[in-house]
From TrEMBL:
The keyword Repeat does not apply. Its EC number is 6.3.3.2. Its cofactor is Mg(2+). It comes from the Bacteria. This is 5-formyltetrahydrofolate cyclo-ligase. Keywords: ATP-binding, Ligase, Magnesium, Metal-binding, Nucleotide-binding. The keyword Nucleotide-binding applies.
C-alpha cells in the first residue's frame, strides 16, 4: 500500500479505539520501552498527543522520564515553514493547543535539535523495514535531519507493521525501533 492508502486505513483503525483501549495500549507501550537500552541518555524528545486523533498517550512515558530524572524536550510547530522549535519541558512550561489541536509549549528554554539523544515519534503506520507514515507534512523528516547522526528514533504505534510501504522517498528517515503495546520491533 502507498502512504495515502495507509493514512486512511490507520486513521479508520484509530477511530474505532475506545478511550480505555488507548489508555491500556499506551501503558503497555510505556512498559515495553523500559526493556530498551536507551536510559543512559540525557535529552529525550517526546510528542504530546493529539487526543482528537487518538494518538498514543505519552503521559506514561513522561512519568518514566521524570522518574529517571531525564531532560524532556517538546516542540512547537510552524506550519508555514514545516519546522519545529524545541523547548525544555519544565514545571513552568505553559501548554496550549494550536489550531490543529496539537498541544504545544507557548515558549520556554529552547533546546537545539543536535543536543537531543532520543526521539519518540508518533505514527499512523510503519513497515518491517523501519519506514514510517505520519500525517504527511514532513515535520519529523525535517527535524530528524537536524539531529545528530546517532539520535535514536523510536516510533510509537498501536498496530502491527505493514510488510512494505510502496512509495518511500529518499529523504524519508527510518526508525531505529518501533514500540507497540504487544511487541518491540528493532529495525
Amino acid at each position: 500500500m502507498n502512504k495515502k492508502e495507509l493514512r486512511k486505513k490507520y486513521k479508520t483503525k484509530r477511530e474505532k479505539l475506545t478511550f480505555e483501549e488507548i489508555e491500556d495500549k499506551s501503558l503497555a507501550i510505556a512498559n515495553q520501552l523500559l526493556q530498551l537500552d536507551i536510559w543512559d541518555k540525557t535529552y529525550y524528545h517526546i510528542f504530546l498527543p493529539i487526543k482528537e486523533q487518538k494518538e498514543v498517550n505519552t503521559e506514561y512515558i513522561l512519568q518514566i522520564l521524570a522518574g529517571k530524572d531525564k531532560e524532556v524536550v517538546i516542540s512547537k510547530s510552524n506550519f508555514e515553514t514545516t519546522t519545529m522549535t524545541h523547548f525544555l519541558l519544565t514545571d513552568n512550561t505553559k501548554i496550549k493547543k494550536n489550531k490543529y489541536n496539537i498541544p504545544e509549549p507557548i515558549d520556554g528554554i529552547e533546546v537545539p535539535s543536535n543536543k537531543i539523544d532520543v526521539v519518540f515519534i508518533p505514527l499512523l503506520a510503519y513497515d518491517k523495514q523501519g519506514n514510517r507514515v505520519g500525517y504527511g507534512k514532513g515535520f519529523y523528516d525535517a527535524f530528524l535531519k537536524t539531529c545528530k547522526p546517532d539520535v535514536i528514533k523510536i516510533g510509537l504505534s498501536f498496530f502491527e507493521p505493514e510488510n512494505c510501504i510502496d512509495d518511500i522517498h529518499s529523504n524519508d528517515i527510518k526508525l531505529d525501533y518501533c514500540i507497540t503495546n504487544f511487541v518491540r520491533l528493532m529495525l
